[in-house]
Write a structure and sequence with these properties.
The complex is a heterodimer of chains A (315) and B (506). Helices cover 75% and strands 1% of the residues of chain A. Chain A is built from 15 helices and two strands. The longest helix of chain A is centred in the last third of the chain and has 27 residues, at 207-233. Chain B is of the alpha/beta class and 506 residues long. Chain B has helices at residues 44-52, 74-79, 97-101, 115-128, 144-156, 174-189, 201-207, 230-238, 292-299, 322-327, 337-341, 348-362, 369-383, 399-411, 429-444, 456-462, 485-494; strands at 6-15, 18-28, 32-37, 59-64, 67-69, 82-85, 108-109, 112-113, 162-166, 193-197, 210-215, 218-224, 256-265, 269-277, 281-286, 309-312, 315-316, 330-333, 417-421, 448-452, 465-470, 473-479. In chain B, a hairpin with a 2-residue loop joins β21 (465-470) and β22. The radius of gyration of chain B is 23 Å and the shape is globular. Classes of the chains: A mainly alpha (315), B alpha/beta (506). Chain A binds chain B through residues 3, 7, 183-186, 188-189, 191-192, 194-196, 198-205, 262-263, 315, and chain B through 54, 73-75, 78, 84, 86, 90-95, 99-100, 103-106, 108, 111-113, 115, 266-267, 303-304. The structure holds adenosine-5'-triphosphate and magnesium ion (MG). Adenosine-5'-triphosphate binds at residues 15, 18, 20, 38, 40-46, 87, 386, 396-401, 428 of chain B.
Chain lengths: 315, 506
């Protein structure tokens, strides 16, 4: 028993993503104790919700060795399309929601087909897609504007006690997904594709089909995030998704995904999204300039990536 | 059951200018074990891949039970009962043993995996093949032998009609091989046609009913096992006979090139003293997993260790990484070439040159393209690596030729000490001899060699001195007159591994 304990090295402990998250959480609370209040918690969770969606989307794609750099732009497009249409056709909110979800999934389908069949790297494909979509979003709505139906606004505002309803639902779905990854043949085949693509193929798993499916899911989740943001800010903003691409990668890696493929932690990603939202809230409460916020976020991503490497290096 | 259950008809396949298979025709009856032999690069794996549906033939057809079949995907082959154990491992390190075994057809209820059922079925198969690890172990945590057992278990979990085995025993010890052979015999009795690729002659005579020999992609002949001998097979394979298999041993040795005192790797290895002299081949033997790997990995910087003294040519050195080891003049040939040995997507030339780069750069030389080419050409010729050209991707080479490449890469660094783990794994008989010759040439020039091998004949044929390990310690040291398979096995098993009684000395 003691021998087993002695064999746990500092490296393993520090490398555990949850450890880092706990440290960040404690630092946040120490700097700004106000964030433990009910309103602050609600605010943090609402901020975290689109990031949880985007982070899970990103970690699913990273799991199979891909990456989706268009997530932020899909969010922006979904957001402005929803806001523009809802302004023009206030009575058709439900149809518009479904239309926007289909649009997100459709963009994901294009990403997925290109990544699976063109031979070009997902990095380039989704980067190009992201730039093109950002143009589309700005074309539709050059600056923030539009308005959404009051019922739709309630989506981001409904609470169960201290907890926003949407966050609770998203977290519940995340937990379900976490279990599905380990306990369904679908989840296991995704891990197989990321861990050893040749093995997956030789075992009869359709690698291309699953790759396409994951980009579709990614686009769909990004559209969900875009809609949620439309509800939250009650309007459209063509740049609302912009910071999310990088943040989604940060939370995926902080949560335990590896760019080597084959690993994912949906729960870790969810927690990481909440912690990152908390950091944002703290920095905003402390009136830290956005420039420093960017630097800090970049530093956190680099830290997370280094810890990932450290964890994987065999002793 | 027909007499030609599995039939290859005029199968051809080329890669660019290389004819991997040319007009190959032969058949295998049901309930029969056919050994498939040939030099490295003869086309054995290619033939297996064509049948298994992972690559398409350029020409020719394959018939199963008289019906022509062309499997476009591995899945189609699996569904037709054609199951393959590939030469290179195809496991997912992140998944458990049970998940790997049933990957692609995990039993589910309403989408959820039946954990209990896969665990039970996996345990049963593992027990059948004599594997001792748990079905819940992560495959990435298993050693090479364990992973090979998982590959075998994965194949056996299927409904097999034709079993293709590409060097399944390369990483296994004798007990595991015996367990595998029992299963092969049982499958044969059940009417399965088996195609068995191996470079180990003794195995062929132990398990095969007949042999088919390929040479340069062509079918040289098919004979019943009773009609052939090792010599006649070697002649069919390489077109000439081999003389004495092992070159003569060294007669005198120089000063110690490596002296280690008080070496330990956690609880896995405790060695009080180890001395390697110039010009000496030091064999490391023992049952599987008694600290041999830890020993060679420690010496070569691949694993962190503690040592009281570590002297090279009498001077103390600090080894904390493979880089340190290379700088100190230690070359290392790992047993897992895919993971540690080669950059598979780089060209063969790049892989060879990498080994020597550090050395040449240290002397401030600029690496010139033509000098590098010449250097590579020399190594390729010396090792008879079968390449279409120096620009062929290392990953596209046949298995044995990849192993030769690892060898060449390390030699390029001109080490003073060469540490080898299973250097001839997957290498054909002709090239094995070539490698033995090279090892002896090196020792004649003063290099000291540490040789870890699970093949006792290789240990006996090559070593000037043998260290037998058990329980993480050196339990016996032998030199030539007293060195024999029996003596080594006796020493290796005398000290039965007992967990927890290792004292804290060293
Ligand atoms: N993907 C590929 N691209 C180019 N050449 C290839 C490819 N695969 C195989 N070859 C070539 O085809 C020939 C036959 O290779 P194969 O792997 O069938 O040999 P083998 O008989 O299995 O050898 P070994 O005993 O070393 O495993 C070799 O010369 C090899 O270099
Ligand atoms: Mg082969």
């Amino acid at each position: 028993m003691t021998a087993a304990l002695r064999n746990i090295r500092l490296r393993d402990v520090v490398g555990a993503p949850l450890f880092l998250l706990v440290v960040l959480l404690l630092i946040g609370v120490a700097i700004e104790p106000a964030i433990t209040g009910e309103r602050a918690i609600r605010n943090i969770l609402t901020t975290a919700t689109p990031l949880i969606l985007a982070g899970i989307a990103q970690s699913l794609v990273i799991l199979v060795g891909g990456i989706d750099l268009s997530i932020g732009a899909i969010i922006s497009v979904a957001n402005v399309v929803a806001a523009a249409l809802m302004t023009a056709y206030p009575d058709m909110t439900v149809a518009i929601v479904f239309g926007v979800l289909a649009l997100g999934a459709g963009i994901g389908l294009v990403n997925g087909v290109l990544c699976a069949f063109s031979g070009a790297s997902p990095f380039i494909i989704t980067l190009a897609m992201g730039i093109a979509l950002q143009g589309v979003a700005l074309q539709i709505m050059y600056q923030p504007g539009g308005t959404v139906a009051s019922g739709f606004r309630q989506i981001a505002r409904a609470n169960w006690g201290a907890l926003p309803v949407t966050t609770v639902i998203v977290v519940a779905l995340a937990l379900l997904l976490a279990v599905a990854i380990r306990r369904t043949s679908w989840g296991v085949s995704l891990i197989a594709i990321g861990g050893n693509e040749a093995s997956a193929r030789l075992s009869g798993i359709s690698v291309k089909r699953q790759t396409v499916l994951l980009y579709v899911i990614s686009g769909f989740l990004a559209a969900c995030a875009g809609l949620f943001l439309a509800s939250r800010i009650s309007s459209g903003d063509p740049l609302v998704g912009e910071p999310v691409t990088l943040d989604s990668i940060t939370v995926a890696v902080l949560g335990g995904s590896s760019f080597l493929g084959g690993s994912i932690s949906v729960v870790g990603t969810t927690v990481a999204a909440i912690v990152l939202a908390m950091i944002n809230t703290v920095l905003n409460l402390k009136d830290v300039s956005p420039f420093y916020q960017w630097m800090l976020k970049g530093a956190i991503l680099i830290l997370a990536l280094s810890l990932d490497l450290l964890r994987r290096r065999k002793g | 059951m027909s007499d030609n259950f599995l039939e290859f008809r005029n199968v051809s396949k080329s890669y660019g200018g290389v004819h991997a298979l040319e007009d190959v025709s032969f058949s295998v009856p049901a309930g029969h074990v056919r050994a498939l032999l040939g030099e490295n690069g003869a086309g054995k794996s290619t033939l297996i891949r064509v049948l298994a549906g992972t690559i398409g033939a350029d020409r020719g057809t394959i018939a199963l039970d008289g019906v022509e079949r062309a499997f476009a995907t591995p899945l189609e082959a699996l569904e037709a009962g054609v199951v393959t154990i590939y030469q290179e491992f195809n496991l997912v390190p992140q998944l458990t043993v049970a998940e790997n075994i049933f990957l692609g057809w995990l039993p589910t209820t309403a989408g959820w995996i039946d954990r209990g059922s896969i665990r039970a079925r996996a345990s049963e198969i593992l027990k059948r093949i004599g594997a001792t690890f748990s079905p819940d172990a992560r495959v990435g945590d298993l050693n090479v032998a364990g992973q090979q057992m998982v590959e075998i278990a994965k194949a056996l979990s299927r409904d097999v009609k034709v079993l293709l085995m590409d060097e399944p025993t390369a990483a296994l010890n004798d007990a595991e091989i015996e367990a595998l052979f029992r299963i092969i015999r049982q499958l044969r009795a059940d009417g399965v046609s088996i195609l068995y690729v191996s470079h180990r002659m003794a195995e062929i005579f132990a398990i095969a009913d007949s042999v088919t020999v390929l040479k340069d992609g062509r079918h040289v002949g098919t004979e019943p096992i009773s009609e052939v001998t090792t010599e006649s097979l070697v002649r069919m394979m390489i077109g000439r006979t081999l003389g004495e298999f092992y070159p003569p041993k060294a007669t005198d040795f120089g000063a110690p090139v490596l002296e280690i005192g008080g070496l330990s790797v956690g609880k896995a290895l405790q060695v009080e003293k180890l001395v390697l002299r110039k010009g000496e081949v030091l064999g490391i033997a023992g049952l599987e997993g008694q600290g041999q790997r830890e020993l060679v990995q420690a010496i070569s910087g691949a694993r962190s260790f503690e040592a009281d003294t570590f002297l090279i040519e009498g001077a103390p050195v600090r080894i904390r990484s493979i880089r340190d080891a290379i700088a100190a003049g230690i070359g290392y040939i790992p047993d897992d070439r895919k993971r540690d040995g080669l950059a598979l997507i780089r060209t063969s030339a790049e892989n060879l040159a990498i080994g020597s780069l550090a050395r040449r750069l240290r002397f401030g030389a600029v690496v010139s393209g033509s000098a590098e080419r010449r250097f590579v050409d020399d190594l390729v010729a010396a090792l008879r690596v079968k390449l279409s050209g120096p620009d062929q991707r290392a990953g596209d080479l046949s298995g044995g030729n990849q192993q030769k490449l690892v060898f060449g890469k390390v030699l390029g660094a001109k080490p003073k000490i060469l540490v080898m783990a299973e250097p001839t794994r997957g290498v054909d008989v002709g090239a094995k001899r070539e490698i033995y010759e090279i090892i002896r040439e090196l020792t004649r020039s003063g290099v000291g060699v540490v040789l870890l091998s699970g093949e006792l004949p290789e240990i006996l044929g090559m070593s000037d001195r043998v260290l037998v390990m058990a329980n993480g310690r050196i339990v016996a040291e032998m030199t030539d007159p007293e060195m024999s398979e029996e003596a080594i096995m006796t020493a290796a098993t005398a000290e039965a591994p007992e967990a927890g009684v290792m004292d804290d000395a060293a």
